[in-house]
Amino acid sequence: MKKGEKAAGLTRPFKLVHQILSLTGINFLRQSIIGYVELTIVPLRDGIRSIPINSKQCKVYRVCLNDTYECPFQYFDPFLDVCQGDNKEQSLDHFSARHLVAALQVDPDCSGMGASVGSGKGSRITGGYPGGELVIDIPPEALHLVSEGRPLRIAVEFSLEQPKGGLHFVVPSGEGSLVQRGAHMFTWGHANSSRLWFPCIDSFSQCCPWQLEFTVDEGMTAVSCGDLIETVYAPDMRRRTFYYRLTTPASAPHIALAVGPFEILVDGEMHEVTHFCLPRLLPLLRTSAAHLHHAFQFYEETLASRFPYSCYKQVFVNHAPVQVASYATISILSTDLLHPSSVIDQTYETRSAMAQGVAEQFIGCFISRQSWSDTWLTQGAATYLASLYAKRCFGNNQYRAWIHSELQEVVKYEEEFGGIVLDPSQAPAPPPTAANASTAAGPTSGVNPTNAVAPAGGNLGGGNIGVGSNSSGAHPSASIAGSPMGGHLGVTTSAISAALNSGNGLAVGQGLIAPGLASPGCAPPFHFPIVSLQTASPRYLDVLRKKAHLVMRMLEHRIGQELLLQVFNKQLSLANAAASSASKPQSSSTLLSAGGKGSPGEGGTYAAAAAWSQHMLISTNAFTRAIFTVTGKDMSGFVDQWVRTGGHARFHLSFVFNRKRNTVEVEVRQEGVASEGVPGGSIKGVRKYVGPLLVTLQELDGTFRHTLQIEGTVARADITCHSKSRRNKKKKIPLCTGEEVDMDLSAMDADSPVLWVRVDPDMTLLRWAGVEQPDFQWQFQLRHERDVVAQLEAVEALRAHPTPASRLALTDTIENEKTFYLVRCKAAHCLTQVANAMVSTWAGPPAMLAIFRKLFGSHSCPHIVRQNNFTNLHHYFLQKTIPVAMAGLRNAHGICPPEVVRFLLDLFKYNDNRKNRYSDNYYRAALVQALAATLTPVISVVNPLGSPLTAESLSPDMRLILEEIVRCLNLEKLLPCYRYTVTVACIQALRQMQKFGLLPSNPSLLRSYAAFGQYIDVRMAALEALADFTKVEGTQEDFEFLLDMAVNDPEPPLRHRLMRLLIDKYPPFVHSTQGSLKGKTKHPVDTESTATKLWDLMNYRLYYDSRLRCDVVDLYHDFYGMKRPQCLSGLSSSVPDSTVEPSEELGSPPYNMSSTMGSRKRKASPAKFDREVKPGSTDVSDSPRRKLAFGVVSPQPQPEVLTDDDRLGLVTVEIVDVGDDAGGVNASKVRVKESNSGVTAVDSGIVVKDELGARAAEAGVPAPPNATVQSPIPVQVKQEYFSDNSASLPGILSGQPGDAKAPTGFEPGMFKKEGAMLHNPAAKPPPSGSAPPNVTPVKTPSGKTGSSHKSHGKDSSSKGKKKKKDKKKHRHKHKHRHEHKHGGGGSKEKGSGTGEKNKGGEKNKSGTSGGKGSGKAGSSGSKGQGVPSESKVSGKEGLAQVKEDHGGTSALLAGESKSVLKIKEETLSSGSTSPSPEHVNPPDFSF
User: Fold this and answer.
1) CA distance 196 to 163
2) Is the dihedral of CA 1358, 1363, 1368, 1371 positive or negative?
3) What is the pLDDT of residues 392-438, one digit of tens each?
4) What is the pTM of this model?
5) Alpha-carbon distance 1229 to 1250, whole Å?
6) Which of 112, 628, 896, 1295 has the fewest CB within 10 Å, making it most exposed?
7) 3-state secondary structure 1029-1060
8) What three-state secondary structure class fits 315?
């Protein structure tokens, strides 16, 4: 980044130069931490009045400035209620704009928003600058520090208990101490998730040195960023503190922590590299990390630069959400990557993941991105380096096959959803020629010529991405005066929503939102905003990384690999020089003295910080300039074409040989691009390409490359052949590799010298390429082309040509030992399709049977397989693939041939792995998959209609298959294999049998395997089967079970993977663009309850996990599209009112906080009551209101005092929820507590009686004579709730009734250095045994755990006296409405469960058992309506689990049919010695 470039890090009114993070109270049993942070910032200008930082979930107790000044603060998290109470529409059109606003309001990288968008009328200098959830006010007595330009040290004391995201505790159950059980914790989350576990400036552009301190129990090891300076034991020798120092500047998102009883392994080849793993995994760690030093050596040689850090650490943990997460000097990896030396399949994945983690240390952590729009650079460059290492490690064929698969995935995604714009911050430059621009738009529109031909909703994913410019992109309605933060951000929901809906885009700051993401008259290209990490779909981000890698390869082709690596070397050299200046300001004392007087630039602190921002951050523009500096080539056109514009090209080539002229007439047509004047015909995500295109012709005399210039949608060229036809002449044909081969040319035209044609063979473009040529040319290409990509393309093309010649070519490919193993495996699957298409003319044994016996059969007895020997890896993969491919064969009756079934069963029978040095677990899993693939629903069940399904109902072959599957499943409990691969295959096979009617569709078996405690791969297999079951024949209860698990499961990776299963593979139903189709029945899951739950998850319940929240957005889009769901009844939403605390069924909003000293009160906007409302009726107010967050703790709760403008009096009101009315509309009641103006009651659309009348109405008796009903009057009602649960500073309000207590061991100023304690005469230290101000969950009438409410009618002074009693019993006036069906009646019940915990610690099942019972709800004292009939066992993790059947067996067949077959437990004939993780065994199965 250059000085002239306006960057996020330099437009802030301050610069972060140092940060201290100290965690002293890490408690595994309570899953809590107590910590302290100190941020040292240098003000860059006068007039700073407040400083925004990022913090979510954390409870803040104290904010102090320079150890002297107490600072008031306030908390604002828009993700607690994304739609701000406006839930009536419930459409993604409405939600997407609000979602983007919420992300931008707290985005620390959103620079200059107020300056570019707002009107600049903010009262503070923070208006229009980066945002944050925690806004700290600078006291007036400390403003002289800002004017003098002195560094400010902001100290924040905080705690975090039971975190839902950012920090994950793994505490296994069982006997023994925490160390013996392997309890550990680690940080995790999406990028920019550090705010979830400590207050910081959560931006990649704010890098600084760090000082880290972590106090842990004896036996635990704390691993974090930087160098370990020292370890100090506490006086009692029961705790020790680890001190780390990171002198190289790093940003907060690159800070990580892992604590646990790790076993430590120092790398034998590189002593600065250390590996950490959980107990008893050290042998696997030695094997898995043995080759890591090769990656270091390769990167240092390739980049000609040393490793940027002084050390590197790898930590392997359980429940890791991703395979590898890279941070400064540390990578956190999943234990699933560890493997023994006997496992083959895992080696490739493990080495690739470790190499990716090391590559991201160079570019990604050391050189960080400037903003979110520059993510493609760091991800693309790191993946590019990792791919070069994979090429060195695994070979060129494996590398090219990987590139080919990534290209196919990117093309598939873009054609399904739309073009991916790698850098949406800036529109592409206008075309150089005015003629091209005038064909598509006016002179000021800035339309790219590649997008000009796209009609409305056209090629670039439904919108012309890149249309517009920075100067004209802003919508006139984007000029906003204020914001919910009192001028803090200068942007509001209506402004961005109007700008997005207008289609002109919104230019925020430096083009944060690209003008042209939606063109006039077009639908947005995606159903989510792509300009923020917090709003983009996780699948979009995954494909974006792959596309960034492909674009980096394209850049390598344009400038050369050597020059591209020189560009990387230049960036690393500049960053190393800038990082060397970070060693000077290492402590807070030096930072205070470095600032000097006057402007910050006079000292060395700001100069060093400016160097960090200039050279250690990379952006698209800076990278383009660096390429020009090194190579002298201007790549701005390339960047505009492929980085700032989305989509890919699509080519279809056809050719004809002209015998007279000896030329090949080639026609290249760009498919999916609409021609001018021709409506329609466009494909989403396809763009018009203008530029060179390489076409390769293989002729009789060799391979010749021709470059065609593509300018329009159709390009034609005549290519002169270098060869002449040779009739009846045999001669070896030279190939591109230089070798000469003999070919049988009898099938080709005698006059044509062309053997085959390829388009873009080097994959230097983002494209889909199809070639139209006869089958014999594809066969030539498969047999004789040496490029693995060409062979894969030929195999794919031969699927459409089921001829004997194709069969012979595929068979020869499988048998050819010189062919790459991936091609041979793919040819086996292709041969299955060809054989099935030729079933009527097929002669001889089943396809591939002879090949398998020839390769792996015994010499003396071919039908018996030899002992396993996997030393030849190509044969190993082929031996796994051929049985699965053969299982797909079908005869003329549509069933698998009996000889194939017998052949597969013999493979189980004769499998012998005793003398094999490698494990056969993946091979046995492939055999089980092959058995499942043989199943067909045709002539498999002989069962009279209505009779129960028993083992005798199955055909003999199906019975043998079932016996073998169940035997393998039960033997896994005695001899578990690596990662339970056989169990996973058996579960998938059982689900296949259920789908074909061979087993009863009973989900209870699958739920037992999906329960928490099983290995995650087993759980995912069971959940995939349950998702398939729910899609085919599931009910609302089945879907809610999956949704509960996807939100509340203790394992973070399972949540995301399960949600992606429901989105990508097994959505229960999908919306239709044409509306409801006739003849289609409504899916049982398509209910109002489903829409409401998904909306609540998106709106406020998943505030802590942006990735999971965006997953729910994708699922909501699959179900209902962009419009309001049709299943919602009425015009108003049935979601709870925004003032009602949500239940904890699917998650709860977090703690809110605001400073109790001097916190700023937000001005309430007037409520409008312009509708006629009858007494007792309910309505939903149009004005948005802030949701009262879960866990609100107010030290001294006081009623709101609002002013009635009409009567000029004071009204003290109390907001009370009154539940749902008869129409299902949730309403709130505002009760008058004190009034001096005659006003009795107001509310949002409901007329409320006065105190006596309200009590009489609740008691069901006539109201007193003086209880009159008043008409609605315009009284101000608070519409946005500022957080009330900021705990008072410990010791400041100590002893006062109602104040919150500090956590155990917490003392005010305990983190301060000796002598720096702020003297407060009124402060009293809290008692040593006091507990933190936590939130007491209560039970709602529905039996769900809700959030605590204010005790209405109680004096606040008595709250402290009844604290213990209130933990057990709370009063609230909420009613919840649930609709459910019992049995087959389907009638609504009015019963409700108690939902209270009994003394024994067990929870009563909520709901009724099907009768008409009704009861009082828990402790509320008010009647609750019906609750769902299904009972859920909810533990501490909130996971809905299914109880296992501990009777010894579980029947797979119907409950009324008794076991007929008895399967004896046998042992495998193979010696599987692979170590496996522990798991909980479900019961054995017998028939």
Assistant:
1) 8
2) positive
3) 999 999 999 999 999 999 999 999 999 999 999 888 887 654 344 33
4) 0.75
5) 11
6) 1295
7) HHHHHCCHHHHHHHHHHHHHCCCHHHHHHHHH
8) strand
